[in-house]
Amino acid sequence: MPKGIWQYTARRAIHAFAVIVGVLVITFVVSHVIPGKPAALWVGAHPTAEQIQRATEELGFNKPLYEQFYIYVTNLLRGDLGVSIRTHDTVLSDVARGLTSTLELIIAAFVIAIGAGIVVGVFSASKRDHVPDHFGRLAAIFSVSMPPFWLAMIFQIVFSQTLHWFPLAGRMSTDVSILYPLKSITGFNLIDSLLTLNFVAFQDSLWHLVLPALALAAYPFGLTVRMVRTMMIEVLQENYTRSALAWGLPGRLILMKYALKNAVSSTIIALGMSFAYTLTGAFLDELIFVWPGLGTYTALSILSLDYPAIMGAVIIVAIFYVVINLLVDILQAFLDPRVTL
Amino acid sequence: MPTRTEPLVTVEDLVVNFHTLDGTVHALNGVSFEVRKGEILGLVGETGCGKTATSLAVLRLLPDNAEVVQGRIVFEGTDLLSKKGKEVAEIRGKKISMIFQDPASSLNPVFPIGTQLMDVLKLHFPEADEAGLRKLAEEKLSMAELPDASAVMAMYPHELSGGMQQRVIMAIALSCSPTLLIADEPTTALDVTIQAQLLDLLKKLKQTLGLSVLLITHNLGVVRELCDRTAIMYAGSVVESADTDQIFKNPLHPYACGLLSSVVTGRLRGTVLHHIPGFVPSLLHAPEGCRFNPRCPYALEVCREKRPDLVEVEPNHYVACFNIPKEPWLT
Amino acid sequence: MIQESSESDAGKRQRFREIRVFLRLTLENSLSTVGLAIIVLFIIIAITAPFIVPYPKQAEGTPEIANQLLPPNWQHLFGTDELGRDLFSRVVFGARISLVTSASVVASAIALGLPLGALAGYYGERIGAIIMRVTDMFLAFPPLLLALAVAATLGGSLINAVLALIITWWPWYTRLAYGQAVTTRNLPYVDSARAIGVGNFRIIVRHILPATLAPILVQATLDLGSAIISVAGLSFLGLGAQPPTPDWGLMVNTGRTYFLQHWWYATFPGLAILILVLGFNLLGDAIREAVDPKLSRRRLI
Predict the structure, then answer these.
(1) A145 vs C274: CB contact, 8 Å cut-off?
(2) CA distances from C138 to A295, C106, C150 (A)
(3) Which of A32, A145, A227 should we substitute to test contact with C (largest number of C Cβ atoms within 10 Å)?
(4) Is C4 inside any structural domain?
């Protein structure tokens, strides 16, 4: 354990907490201060004047701002995110339902993106300015330029409709879910199916995961290649690389063991950023593949102007993102001990 | 003090260009010198004269944009410049090793000292096991006079002071018992007191390990203290080389004379400080012939046309000049 | 009062040399030339759109029901949509929207964020801390999320989408400018300028701001591409352009309903997005390689 890791974690946790407070302030401003008639948004589409009036009183929009903020925060702490106009369920339960499903997709996409990205990035950097590097950079730039929703649709047409390699949409085939029902333990289909030895369900879930995960992985893949390549090139120019060479260490060892760790530890923070893009990209991706997760929920909420649901999802995702960043910070401390200073 | 022992590595007429965005820099213009067995040779010169480039050339560590136009670096009978990649890797660390100027940036910051040292030791002792390597590593650290070697093994570079870092670097560089150590301004970035300690250590190691050292520095005091012989470089070539005593007593090259009389001592109190007029030439557009000729008070016509070769003017005293001053400069 | 000397001749020559080297590095790279060519092509197309397009009225929304959902043919290069409108014309017109909206977003974000960041970095202490804390709050959100919330609050329209994106985008430039300002402020020549009495405003304009230019330029070029995708994404969710605007994102969205049987509807607008964004990314990447001092040419392995 690196020295000073506990103090560092504490510092970062306090910072994260402060950030969450900031997030709440901003979301409050957006939902309560910016709109002319905030109550109108919470009632539903085409509210009548009477409905708006009633909502204003019930939801306390006529109270002074600081009081509204107090109510806002206390509600959130209680888990009360309001009631969805569309589903008529509490937003909290809606979100919880979709969370694991979205996580499975995001994690799969991320693992693919990072894994492939590091490999291509390292290879590209080690062959800088030669043909393999050009291919690597081109692949990265292409991936980063793709509109994620469009790529998803192209995948559907090409790999599903035309080639019939993968299913078109959804998380599991209906016939499989009826004939080989999957018991939900963790909420992650891949894990649950393995745990219950339900191999048919495993293969089916896996097959449904491929296209959405690949489409979602494109952007973070490109980002990772770009970042790893840049970091790697920098590291390979550093004095400590030159010393290692002077002392006789073979180039391969320097590349694979030493330089890689240097580059990756610097890249970690930026990986947190690419995670953010994966999060928002997941919304569009889920919508197209009809993946039953948080993204689809949010997208449907937007399309039906379900304001409580939209804000609720935004808050949850934002807080989730802050927590992820905190974990990334801590991870970086393990990789680069200088960080705890 | 060794007089005429055999050479360990000989640099012959090395010419190196660097291709930069501003043009071609003619950095090394025919560098020639030799390091003899068991001696410390001081390679002295101002910033930019090519000392570092020369040292990097020996271990083939020149950057991508460097081009070796001509020259040989003879070590153990073969020309190092003609060797292939794998052969060069064989030599690095095991026969010739190198330490650099800034200790803080010469160690990988995300790995503990122990790992870095043991990885190098593994090159020389591939069959040794973890425990054996560890013991060996601690021995090497102790040899570099680091207190509490086992604690140091677990530390990260940023947890050590500059002096300790440089000791660690020495330990690593010498761990495979090379015969030649190239030290590029190893103490320039450190305090004077630490500097003295490290140079003492270097002297001791030379004795105990039978090490030969190519010491690169711009500090004449260090040279006087430590080096058996000295080679003075100016703008890309060696202009004078001899036993250290000889050079300081009787410098013959006009630049060397100017350099040594610019050294400030107590005796000069009350006098105007001496300096060599003019500036070091840009190596993008270096002067023709002897590169010192624009500033040289003894320049002849021939100096502007041809470059002088190193000539043995006295036993073991080499000078590259067409017009060596007759009267001694220093009193 | 001591007059701050104007840039000496040597300084000016150095600047010109730097610019020449920069241009040479950027343009010599074939990838960046391709990028630049794409961007210029799209700009020309956007400007001349009403004159070069076969069905300008349809591009603006006039339907032609008889020609519903025709696959690509010689009269309709990209096919037609569900209202019979020529997709080629609409995609071309869409270029205007994409270029204008992304330029607005990036320009406004820079106009807001750059001065704030420069001020925060230069003055430091309380002003800097306040500005940076606020910036951090905004940066805590995953990029599109906040834009989503704002756009949803304001209501779906292209202008609101642009506004929402500006609100989410400015902090990035503030942070960028802040970093550069802090580094520059501590440089010896800035200290000297202060010591001889040069006013703060002058220092900021003459020294701090130029230092921020290089990274901001790189970021802006890349952001123009990201902004296009973001606007398209918001339009795709119904929070941006509304029908009948020929916005690329909106077209992909509408096309989604039909595209499994009529592949051309969603493919071509999306392809347009891809190519234009590719252009910006190629150029931005090349500029970054040329400008980043850490990516110099010392190769050892």
Answers:
(1) yes
(2) 21, 17, 12
(3) A145
(4) no
